[in-house]
Structure formats: structure tokens, C-alpha cells
Queue: 2 jobs
Job 1
Amino acid sequence: MIALGVESTADNLGIGVVAGDGRVLANVLDVHVPAEGGIHPREAARHHSECMGGAVRRALDEAGVNAKELDIIAFAQGPGLGPCLRTGATSARALACYLGRPLVGVNHCVAHVEVGRMATGAEDPLTLYVSGGNTIVSGYESGRYRIFGETLDIAVGNCLDTFARAAGLEYPGGPDIERWAARGEKLISLPYTVKGMDLSYSGLLTAVTAELQTGRHRVEDLCFSLQETAYAMLGEITERALAHTGKPELLLTGGVAANKRLGSIVRSIAEEHGAKPYVVPIRLAADNGAMIAWTGILAYNSGIRTPVESSHVNPNWRMDQVEIPWRS
Ligand code: ATP
Ligand code: FE2
């Protein structure tokens, strides 16, 4: 069994080719960097449609696979930016129809968890998924990935990226903020907003940007304080969910998983609760096509198919709306 996966939920286009036993045969990434400001959905979608043909060809070449050898075509059906999702879905439908192969629509957030389990060997982890568009603590319970906590407004990665832009740092902001934070010394007081099991990052972003504009602080200290506050909030809800669920494993995934400080917080929480910590390798933690292909295989093997007529995208598709028959 060989699956091709199309990932186009936001600014990156990913095409992955994965075998039925989990071997990643190819994982091509075509990154779209906005000329200025944040992601513009239609600009990103245009990038995806221009790069699609080349990316599919590169992925097949890299995998050493002929298109006719593909058994299924999986695509990220949501959540994400409408125009970007539609571009990926249109290409996936065209490929599936042309090759006469089944189409499998995949939930992007579920794919982050599934590729994390596959890559690390974790079986039943509580997962902290942190990226530019998502901030979710989830775990499997009675047939679905239940959400134990999430952001109420912007994602933690979005908060980092927007602050980085205001401070004139590199895009995306996470890695540069991490470098500056390493030289920070002073903890500036910033809003720490945890509401029950959920988080809010918009007040933190407004406040740290206002502190930047006063010109009173070193950028190093602002980055340090932003990281400490943002990650402490994540740590609090993750720890509470871990204590509540008693999960034996804790998995960190998404683009922000590359952060060393967050990794060490996650490891210490896991240790405290006797859980095994796992961090997904970054090439599979950030958005990629292989995670979509792999989750497509799991779904297909459980009998899931997405007929073309019901393959419309769903920009607001929550992961806890998805049945997960392969885990029951
Ligand atoms: P999604 O569609 O899942 O929301 P995404 O489009 O944001 O994903 P990812 O590649 O998963 O894509 O994540 C990108 C985010 O990861 C950016 O916000 C970036 O700043 C952040 N990031 C990358 N490296 C680091 C790092 N070292 N520390 C903190 N954040 C990081
Ligand atoms: Fe993602």
C-alpha cells in the first residue's frame, strides 16, 4: 500500500508519499514566505496551485514511485484557510479521479497526532500540539481525540510570529525569539491568561508589543519574558490534563515543538507524573504531506473513504468531531 498526501492548510505546501508500514518515502515541502506582513490566504493559495505539479512530481521521483503505483490519495480537508484548503483538495480530487483511486479526507490536527505516534512509537499519549495556527491539548478517549484545553483566540506560534515582526526579527518568529531569549536576564511582568483549561494569547501579544514600544527594555529580555510566560501557560494546562487523564505518555508536536525551552518544560512535567516524554522530530512535527498520507492510510484501513461529492473542505473542522476507528 502506498499513499500520497497533500497538505495545504496554510502557507506551506507539502506532498508526502508513505508506505503502508509507515516508511516515509518522500516528504516534499514548498514554503511560501509572504512578501510582507502575515499570511494572505489567496496569495498562499496561488503559490500552492503554481507549485503543485512540480511538488507532486518531485515527491514521486524522490520516492521512486510511479503515479500508477499509488493506492490512495489523501488530503487535508480542514481545519485551515479556505482558499489554501480548496487548492489542495482540487488537486487531490483530480489525481484520484485521473488514477481511479480512492480519495481520503484527513483532519490536519489528527494527522499531527498520528504522525507523532508513528514517528516516536508513543501509543496512547496526551498531546500538546503547538503551531502557528493551533494550540491544543488532546488525548484519545472513547473513539475520539478529546480536546482538554486550547487557545480561545490566537495560537501561541501566531503570538510569537506577530511579536517578532513588530520587533524586526526574522520570519517565522519562533526560532529568532528563541535565540534572543537565550541572552535574556530580566523577567518582565506580562499577562498570564489561563481560563479553566483554556488559554488566551491576544492580551499577552498586545502587552509585550506595548512594552517593546516604550523602548525601555532590551529585546533579549522581552523575548525571554514572552517565552517564559507563553510556555508556562502551556505547561499549566498540559500538566493538569496529564494529571487528570493519567496518560502514560506526553507528546509534543507542531512547529513550536522545535523550541528547546518548551521541550524541557514538557519533559519535566512528564517526569513529575511518571509519563514518558516524546518530541516529534521537526521535519514531521511542522506541517508536512507525510502526516496526511499516513493518517490517510490509517483511515483507509478502517474503511474510511471520501467520495468526491462529499469532499468539500471544512476550514473549521475540529479534531474532536472526527471518529477514530483505528484506535478502538
Ligand atoms: P498549523 O497549520 O498546524 O497551525 P503552521 O502553518 O503554523 O501549522 P508549523 O510549521 O507547524 O506550521 O509551525 C510554524 C510555527 O512554529 C511558527 O509560528 C514558528 O514561529 C514556530 N516555530 C518554529 N521554530 C520554533 C522555535 N524554535 N521556537 C518557537 N517556535 C517555533
Ligand atoms: Fe499544522
Note: The pocket of fe (ii) ion (ligand 2) is lined by residues 108, 112, 131, 287 (CB under 6 Å).
Job 2
Amino acid sequence: MKYALVTGASKGIGRAISLKLAEMGYYILINYNASYDDAIKTLELVKEVGSDGELLKFDVSNSNEVKQALDTWTTQHKNEYIEVLVNNAGINKDNLMIWMPEEDWSSVLNISLNGFFHVTQYMLKNMLVKRFGRIINIVSLSGIKGMKGQTNYSAAKGGLIAATKALAAEVGPRNVTVNAVAPGFIETDMTKDLPEKELKNMIPVGRFGTAEEVASLVGFLASKEASYITGEVISINGGIYT
Ligand code: NAP
């Protein structure tokens, strides 16, 4: 059995990635925090595509919860390890910086950036020992370009991009690749309140992307075919120049 952990897999891009990896033969550890019913739905869909999985509840920003959940799983699977990690969990709390409550600055960074640290550090040891691993971080156009109203989100994703490059340099010799995928506007709950009609005028292909399109790219980066790609940030944004 090959294992993959997707954080924030209860819906949106995380769900689509779970299904893609399930199609590729992975058993999926479906992390969620608040949306139990949605996570169960992801598990049902994983089974429908012919694989299997289980739910793993933890808040990625809480190091104790992460450790406890992964300790429990590891104890129950002594001879196995998780070879693919997709750090997808993320939130946005948009506001002009002048109005931004400190809590909205901190929570966005805690989930995207500290969450990456908590989960990845735990899982890295086994990948290094086994000399194979795939770490894929879901970042954003906002972390490359910087978007107004998103200083917190841009900082979190920009930090994650830098961490991707640094970690790739550390673990490359052990056959562990670390890459970032930077979506533009993708149809999910996160973008459902955006003025799609207006925004799609600035997208060369003239539409928002789908979670499945992002998942295809993640599937490729997780595959053996992508062995020589590491430390990269790959945009998937319909042609918006970054
Ligand atoms: P979404 O539909 O809102 O899903 C967000 C996911 O993150 C949910 O599964 C949620 O799970 C999980 N999550 C949130 N806080 C968490 C926490 N503390 N611990 C564990 N899981 C947590 O958003 P999405 O659009 O699919 O976004 C997925 C990723 O893509 C995010 O990192 C986002 O920044 C990035 N992204 C999205 C777009 C876009 O246009 N949609 C563009 C660029 C980048 P629960 O509900 O169970 O808490």
C-alpha cells in the first residue's frame, strides 16, 4: 500500500487532489479540521474511484494536534510510511492592511505557513530514511505577485514559496522532491463570493480554473515522472502573467 496525506482534503482543491492520487493507486489520509461531513464525502468519492482512505482530523496550525494524530497513525502502521504529502490546507481573510485585525494576520499565516512546518517536519524523517518522498505545497498567484487586500495571504504563500525552495535544497540528495503549485482563480468555496464576470476579463483563457485541473498538476508532481523537478513553483492560472 502506498500512502498519501492531503491536508484540507474535505473540499475544493484538496478533495480533487485526493481523488487524483486515489486514481493513481494511493491510499488517502484525508485531513480535515471543521468539515466532517465534507470529509466523509471525500472518502466516499475516493472509494468510488477504486481506492481507499481514512479521515485524519487535526488543525494544521496546532502542533500538538498534528503530532497526536500522526503519532497515532504511525503507531498503528509501524512498517509503513507516507510517501506523498500535499500541504493544501489554507484560508483567506482579506482586508486592506490598514483595517486588518491582528487575528486575521496571524490565523492566515498560522494555517498556511506554520501548518506546513508542523506537518512536513513530522513526516520528513521517514521520507529521508526511506529515500523517497514527494512534498507538494499549494501556494497562490497572490504569493508570487502580491495582491491588494491580501497582505496576510500573500505573506503566507510567499513564505511558503521560499520554504519550498530551501527545503528542496536540503532534501534533494535523499530523493525527496519539494515543489509548489500556484493556482490563480479556481472555482471553490474560497472564490465563490468573488466577482467572477469582472475578474475573468483579466484571465487570458477567459475563465476560472477547476480544482481538477490543479489536481492533475499535483498528480504529475507526485509521480515518478517528475523525479527531476524540485524547488519549483509552477503556476496554473489560465495565463495571467506573473
Ligand atoms: P476551500 O474550498 O475553502 O478549502 C479549504 C480546505 O482547507 C478545507 O478542506 C478546510 O477544511 C481546510 N482547512 C482550513 N483550515 C484548516 C486547518 N486549520 N487545518 C486543517 N485544514 C484546514 O479552499 P480551496 O480553494 O480548495 O483552497 C485550497 C488551497 O488552495 C488553499 O491553500 C488555498 O489558499 C489555495 N488556493 C486556492 C485558490 C482558489 O482560487 N480557490 C487559488 C490559489 C490558491 P475544513 O473545512 O475541514 O476545516
Note: The first strand starts at residue 2 and ends at 6.
